[in-house]
């Protein structure tokens, strides 16, 4: 791996080449959120008021789930302050956008903006980083899991993408609630519980079968779509002592229309360089990165990144390698010998 640089070093190098307008909020992004909200409410009404065929209900479930994911991507952008700047309005709109995924704005900003972005892929300080071999060796439950063959673990890991965002969000609540000042903790608790009260209340209003199609299945779909991106953001990259986005982050490529409906969430390295910039302008940032540091920039098609995740373990060994404890084999990470087109392992006892 080449010499590491802090994200501020890259940002300063690029910023002087960018027009000042790219640092202004883009409230027009809210029209996308309004479209998603309209689709969700309309689909709820169709499922709740009409006795639809099973296949039509499933189709609506997928549409709602995709909308849940799209709202989550917009919520992520809103809570970075790139859509509106007034804190009270930012938090209200962010809460609405994250309501389907049941994540409160205060918790999200503490967990994601303040902690993850500042300590990205730091083995001890990033709440989203995967553990090292040393850490899992002290966790009895994890040791049992890692006795399973890699392909079986990978299959279960991919299936778990359908619940991972929701599960991790609840875990982050338990981790960070005590770090808020006592006077702010009730608001954080309310923001966490209110969406769940809404969704459980919906169950009693429309009945279990309709709720299954209107919320539960869409929640699983929304989780999977969101986590398909999040799982590629950093999990193939090394753990690093310096927050270097060109070393610790991966941008994936998807069709242009997917970038439109997902608010350019695929541009993840760009996001870590300029989290306060609307993702609308990330293609411009990407052009500058690729012209200035083409050998350091990591990108690949989404499908290829997911396949690489399935073929490699999620435990770190010496920060730069991934290790399968069961077979004592290591795999490179991006920038450290990992070739996604030809994934090879070696014994770490060599």
TrEMBL record:
<feature type="transmembrane region" description="Helical">
    <location>
        <begin position="54"/>
        <end position="74"/>
    </location>
</feature>
<feature type="transmembrane region" description="Helical">
    <location>
        <begin position="148"/>
        <end position="167"/>
    </location>
</feature>
<feature type="compositionally biased region" description="Polar residues">
    <location>
        <begin position="339"/>
        <end position="350"/>
    </location>
</feature>
<dbReference type="GO" id="GO:0008610">
    <property type="term" value="P:lipid biosynthetic process"/>
</dbReference>
<dbReference type="Pfam" id="PF00487">
    <property type="entry name" value="FA_desaturase"/>
</dbReference>
<keyword id="KW-0472">Membrane</keyword>
<feature type="transmembrane region" description="Helical">
    <location>
        <begin position="28"/>
        <end position="47"/>
    </location>
</feature>
<feature type="transmembrane region" description="Helical">
    <location>
        <begin position="188"/>
        <end position="206"/>
    </location>
</feature>
<dbReference type="GO" id="GO:0016717">
    <property type="term" value="F:oxidoreductase activity, acting on paired donors, with oxidation of a pair of donors resulting in the reduction of molecular oxygen to two molecules of water"/>
</dbReference>
<dbReference type="InterPro" id="IPR012171">
    <property type="entry name" value="Fatty_acid_desaturase"/>
</dbReference>
<dbReference type="InterPro" id="IPR005804">
    <property type="entry name" value="FA_desaturase_dom"/>
</dbReference>
<feature type="region of interest" description="Disordered">
    <location>
        <begin position="328"/>
        <end position="350"/>
    </location>
</feature>
<keyword id="KW-1133">Transmembrane helix</keyword>
<dbReference type="GO" id="GO:0016020">
    <property type="term" value="C:membrane"/>
</dbReference>
<keyword id="KW-0812">Transmembrane</keyword>
<protein>
    <submittedName>
        <fullName>Fatty acid desaturase</fullName>
    </submittedName>
</protein>
<feature type="transmembrane region" description="Helical">
    <location>
        <begin position="212"/>
        <end position="230"/>
    </location>
</feature>
<feature type="domain" description="Fatty acid desaturase">
    <location>
        <begin position="56"/>
        <end position="300"/>
    </location>
</feature>
